[in-house]
Give the backbone structure.
Amino acid sequence: MLEIDLLLLFMIASAIIAVQVKDLLSSVIAVGAVGIGLSMSFLIMKAPDLAIMQLVVEVLSLIILIRATIRKDLPFSASGRWAFNTFSMILFLAVFLVFAYFSFSDMHRFGAPLMKVSQEYLGEAMAKTGAHNVIAAITLKYRSIDTLGEVAALFAAVVGVLAIARKVSRPGGIRK
Amino acid sequence: MSRAGNKGMTLIVKTVTRITLGFILLYGIYIALNGETAPGGGFAGGVIVALALVHVMLAFGRDVSLKWLHVGGLRAAVSIAALIFLLAAWPRGQRIIFGNDIILPVCEMVIVGAGLFAIFVALVLVSKADKEAE
């Protein structure tokens, strides 16, 4: 698994750059590099569905971050309150390490996951649903309610945006 | 880029956008329909459709794209797709009613594409309103 280790190093380095760099555009591009590395590692671990999803969502979120949020006159404060910042950083790091110790000691070894429900899905999905892609069979047949909730959230987004954009399409209409 | 966003990009970008837009939309629909046999699915296809719309908006500028954006048609399409999805995915007992391998990904594609594009439009409009307020 040398490729995975190299990609993890690349992603960690990009994340540190994204946090530390001063320029906002460079920071956004470093975040994009983290996402592309994640997509490549999905591809190496033989999950092309997740790789496609991660790639397209990464491109879209990168465009949104660059186009819609970056401006030159953003208020930006990096200085001041260093005592509080250092204290909170150490506190959250300690909490994270404690919880990570307990949860990682309970986790299964990488490459040997716990297979209870997934084993049943893997064994019976092809015969029961007739789909060739087991992931599509699981997301559309076994867990359709999950997709329904996701669609409901996006539907709410569309309705909200149509309520906002209406003011623009009728100029001056709401101010009269 | 965002300062000159009202006018859009150069003629080269506009021409290439005009040529490639159909192919990008077709690829999104292909990904959505082919999710049963190959990697992909309704969500990835919908994101690709949203990317095609974002592409048009970046190339031609905000005002032209918002003029093209047919609010009533978009609302009707999204509402019909959500209704079909709700009917198709509603569980009755053990199995879903008519969960088809074609209908569900297409409805998911329509809703995801419109939703993500709508989020982009909302962020652009909010940043424009901020800029006007300053």
About this structure: Chain A has two domains: 1-71, 118-176. The mean pLDDT of chain A is 82.
